[in-house]
Amino acid sequence: MYISYGGKLLTIKEALISPNEGFQYGYGLFETLKVHNEKVYFIDEHLKRLRNGCKELNIELHYDLKLIKEYINKLIVSNSLTSGVVKIIYTKNKNHAHLLITTREKIYNEERYKKGFSIAFASTRKNPHAKLTYIKSNNYLENLLAKEEALKNNYDEAIFLNTNGFLSEGSFTNLFFVKEKNIYTPAIACGILPGIMREKTIDLINILGLSLKVGAFTKEDLLHADEIFLTNSLMDIMPVSKLENKIFDLYKLPTTKLLMDEFHHLHYPFL
Fold first, then answer.
1. Per-residue pLDDT at 21
2. Cα–Cα distance between 264 and 202 in angstroms, integer?
3. What CATH code would you report for 110-267?
4. C-alpha angle 82/54/1, rounded to 5°?
5. Neighbour tally for 101: CB within 10 Å
6. What is the model's pLDDT at position 90?
7. pLDDT in tens, 108-126
8. In this structure, which CATH number among 3.30.470.10, 3.40.50.12710, 3.40.50.170, 3.60.21.10 belongs to the domain 2-105?
9. What residues does each domain of the chain span?
10. For residue range 212-239, what is the model confidence (pLDDT) as tens digits?
11. CB 132 within 8 A of CB 126
12. Which of the ends of the chain has fewer CB neighbours closer than 10 A, N or C?
């Protein structure tokens, strides 16, 4: 197994990284990209977000985006990765920066979608006024703690409310729900990371001519939803089978199924 560090292929044993600002203080960014049948999905969108994040965090991006693509493709070939995950980590070290790219195997299979996700509300809240809320930075501990809490209580994901009491996002997902054929998703201003798959899902909803409402919604809105689904770049669209004590019949989620099917047909046409 290889990683790419500064564009050089290294084995795990060779990968020695100095304790710089990025690793001491979380001063950096990351992106996770889906690889399927050797294709890296939405790579341009991910690299654009990385570049924009660098500007927000005052980190100079020392690599041309085309060069990063070359590093990614070389690593995929070297690790014989057909389907799985590419992770890009870019960290600051005073006036320099470090680029680390890794891969791992696929984590979501057909059985996972048939089972759906169980979700619960997080005990902590998102701050919609914090700059890092809107950047995919290496300061991810709050999300990880919320996810660990959910897993400890036998849920797959934790859903944050923000400090104003409105729905925000999951610890590693964006949130959508359906009520009376209308689709709802929290606005970015509610304190969410604007996910690549969130954007693609909104595009698909608009293409299909479905009703979408983006705004500020409450915990009670979600508790009274007819359907709930989550999105991120690795799972695409994941149906929710349980919200705390409320059970959803996965065979009776017409809007979620439609979006899953249409997304698959649009982006995986030869499968």
1. 56
2. 15
3. 3.20.10.10
4. 25
5. 24
6. 95
7. 999 999 999 999 999 999 9
8. 3.30.470.10
9. 2-105, 110-267
10. 999 999 999 999 999 999 999 999 999 9
11. no
12. C
Tokens of 66: 């085309």
pTM check: above 0.90: yes
Strands 157-162 and 96-105 come out as unpaired
CA dist 18 and 12 (Å) reads 15
Q: What is the pLDDT of residues 19-45, one digit of tens each?
A: 555 567 789 999 999 999 989 999 999
Instruction: Give CA–CA dist 169/161, Å, rounded.
Output: 7
Paired tokens of 215: 């705004």
> Over the chain, what HEC string results?
CEEEECCEEEEHHHCCCCCCHHHHHCCEEEEEEEEECCEECCHHHHHHHHHHHHHHCCCCCCCCHHHHHHHHHHHHHHCCCCCEEEEEEEEEECCEEEEEEEEEECCCCHHHHHHCEEEEEEEEEECCCCHHHHCCECCCHHHHHHHHHHHHCCCCEEEEEECCCEEEEECCCEEEEEECCEEEEECHHHCCCCCHHHHHHHHHHHHCCCEEEEECCEHHHHHCCCEEEEEECCCEEEEEEEECCEECCHHHCHHHHHHHHHHHHHHCCCC
Rounded CA Rg of the chain: 19
